[in-house]
Amino acid sequence: MQDSAKFHASALVIDGHADTPQRFVDEGWNFSDPLNSGMLNLDSAGQGNLAAEFFAIWVEPKGWRGRYAYRTLQLIDGVYEQLRKHPSTMRFGLTPADIVQAHQDGVFCALLGIEGGHSIEADLGLLRLYHRLGVRYMTLTWTNTNEWADSSGDLDNPSVHHHNGLNDFGRDVIREMNRLGMMVDVSHVSDKTFWDVLQTTHAPIIASHSSARALTDTLRNLTDEQLCAVATNNGVVMVNFCTSFIDDNWRTAWSATQPQREPLYAAATAPYLERGEPVPYSVFLAIDRAFYAQHLAPTMPLAPFDSLIDHFDHVAKVAGIDHVGIGSDFDGFSILPAEISSAADLPKITAALQRRGYTEEQLKKLLGGNLLRVFADVQAEAAKE
Entry's Pfam families (predicted)? Predict the structure, then answer.
């Protein structure tokens, strides 16, 4: 077996989910700029040998209500602008072959995934338009239930009209995504929605950024039964790096500080709300990071790096090595686990899994091969239509 660093440097590494497009649009930040508290840029991707990234097009559902499609297009344009500004170092990806070719050419491959089905405004025409613009997966819900699919994030909210999973239009969405060759992403959905998706789809599914509920008890993670079902479907589950999804001790301790953080959020967001403007997500991330550094860091250590590796290990053992991948959620949350500060640290995951006995062939699948296979299978199914 090769030295882990050399092996990682030779592997095709694909990340299934990063929220970086908000930075492009809201902060006027370029992908070649220094990280400035972020988690992913061109330099860190190069250091971590990250070949391809699915950029999440996420529309905050309250501030952008009534303008979901507008914000979706604004964020897609933000990615296109980065491609225009970095023609020699970035390339757009539409197919698995595009990822492979970009990797061979030493160029970073940018791909698009919509996070939250509210972006389509209950219109299959918008879904088709987004596909024409290059979107290659859609996360069916975010933390909000939409017009056609229940989310895991608001099941306890009695004011939300739920559908008991997918409604009839939601099933039409799945079938149209299958026809288009757009991957169906079940991260964020309710358990009932998850099972309804599997009853409806005829193509493999993905969970672009979800970890294991058996290890961290949150509805954002998948149960062992769900992990096995994704495997039976020949799909892939991509492990999320968010500390609240990988370590129960951290999740409990961080949640306990919510009452202390709420007044900070209110003060920081007030000027935006007074102007009638949506609040950039970066405002909340900055507050969380400052709060942790000032009040918690001396007594509350970061979530252990091993907790993250435990989730990779668990998904690989329960679903099988052919059904696990990387779904970092970079730039979508505030505080990374110990030993991970950016995409530059991805080789540490390879080294840790090697120490646990994973072979190079197994790691090639986990690092990118499994997602590449599912991507190809979904497009092949669509070609049969």
Answer: Peptidase_M19
List, as one string, the DSSP characters of 143-212: SS--SSB-BSSSTT-TTS---SSB-HHHHHHHHHHHHHTPEEE-TTB-HHHHHHHHHH-SS-EEETT--B
Angle in degrees, CA 58, 192, 135, rounded to 5: 30
pTM confidence score: 0.97
Domain with 86 in it: 4-247+303-383
Q: What is the DSSP letter of 93?
A: -
How far is it, in rounded angstroms, from Cα 213 to Cα 19? 22
CA angle 166, 150, 210 (to 5 degrees): 110
Q: Which CATH number is 351's domain given? A: 3.20.20.140
Is 186 in the same domain as 332? yes
Q: In terms of domains, do 258 and 309 share one?
A: no
Cα 31 from Cα 108, distance rounded (Å): 11
Rounded-to-integer distance, Cα 344 and Cα 217, Å:
29
Answer yes or no: do 269 and 200 share one domain.
no
Give the integer Cα–Cα distance in Å for 281 and 73.
Answer: 17
- pLDDT digit string (tens) for the chain, length 385 residues: 568 999 999 999 999 999 999 999 999 999 999 999 999 999 999 999 999 999 999 999 999 999 999 999 999 999 999 999 999 999 999 999 999 999 999 999 999 999 999 999 999 999 999 999 999 999 999 999 999 999 999 999 999 999 999 999 999 999 999 999 999 999 999 999 999 999 999 999 999 999 999 999 999 999 999 999 999 999 999 999 999 999 999 999 999 999 999 999 999 999 999 999 999 999 999 999 999 999 999 999 999 999 999 999 999 999 999 999 999 999 999 999 999 999 999 999 999 999 999 999 999 999 999 999 999 999 999 999 7
* Residue 199: Cβ within 10 Å count: 10
Q: Which of helix, strand or coil describes residue 126? A: helix
Is the distance from CB of 365 to CB of 14 less than 8 angstroms?
Answer: no
Q: Is residue 145 located within the same domain as residue 291?
A: no
DSSP 72: H
74 and 154 fall within a common domain: yes
CA pair distance 310, 211, nearest whole angstrom: 10
